[in-house]
Amino acid sequence: MLAVLLSVTATALPASAQTRAVVLAFEFIDEMHDPATREGDRSRLEKVNARFPEALRQCSTLTLLPPPKAVIELLESQIAYVHQCNGCAEDIAKAAGADIVLFTWVQKVSNLIINMNAEAQDAGGRPLDVRSVDMRGNTDASWLRAADALAKRLCERVK
Questions:
Q1: Does 2 have pLDDT greater than 70?
Q2: Helix (H) / strand (E) containing 154
Q3: Strands (E), the chain
Q4: Which residues are CB-neighbours of 114 under 8 A, at least 6 positions away?
Q5: What is the mean pLDDT of the chain?
Q6: At 41, which CATH number?
Q7: Is the pLDDT of residue 158 over 80?
Q8: By the 8 A CB rule, do 101 and 93 touch?
Q9: What sign has the CA pseudo-torsion 102, 140, 137, 151?
Q10: What per-residue confidence (pLDDT) applies to 10?
Q11: What is the spatial distance between Cα 129 and Cα 120, in angstroms, rounded to a whole number?
């Protein structure tokens, strides 16, 4: 079961013919710290990181760019979660040549309460859109459905 939890729009997403977007890999916030589910969660995160950009390619107005590896590695060495970097979107966008940066993360409260999130920021670091999909159940199928639903909702904003 999926439920859309949040949709906050500070500014309209760019309406150009092709918006260049860099999509960062999903970060995992595990509030359970259960060693018994660690390997399964890691596997699901890899699957979602492969699936989400593919789902976003359905957006006819988005051109996906690779994340700037050097900038991301530097940020990861300095802070726990890149999506909480507070102002790094400008550096990421500039290094990638992007119009927007999509920060993504999964927060696992329990095996029954997991949410998948995406925040779009423009090249100046201004928030454009925040989306969250809540899933019930810690399965490959629920994670992949959530990734598809999150991508679909983001695509609806940029059409």
A1: no
A2: helix 140-158
A3: 2-8, 19-23, 27-30, 62-65, 100-108, 114-122, 127-135
A4: 106, 107, 108, 134, 135, 136, 138, 142, 143, 146
A5: 89
A6: 3.40.50
A7: no
A8: yes
A9: positive
A10: 41
A11: 5
Check residue 59 and give left, alpha or beta (phi > 0: left; psi -120 to 50: alpha): beta
Domain that holds residue 96: 2-158
* Residue 116 backbone zone (phi > 0: left; psi -120 to 50: alpha; other: beta): beta
Residue listed under structure tokens 């679909």 = 152
**Tokens, residue 2:** 């999926």
Q: How many domains does the chain have?
A: 1
For residue 24, give the nearest of 115, 103, 133 by alpha carbon. 103
Q: Which two tokens stand for residue 1?
A: 């079961």
DSSP state of 33: -
- Spatial distance between the Cα atoms of 58 and 106, rounded to a whole number of angstroms: 22
**Is residue 127 classed exposed, middle or buried when 0-12, 13-18 and 19+ CB atoms within 10 A define those classes?**
middle
Q: Is the dihedral of CA 151, 54, 45, 80 positive or negative?
A: negative
**Residue for token digits 């999903």?**
26
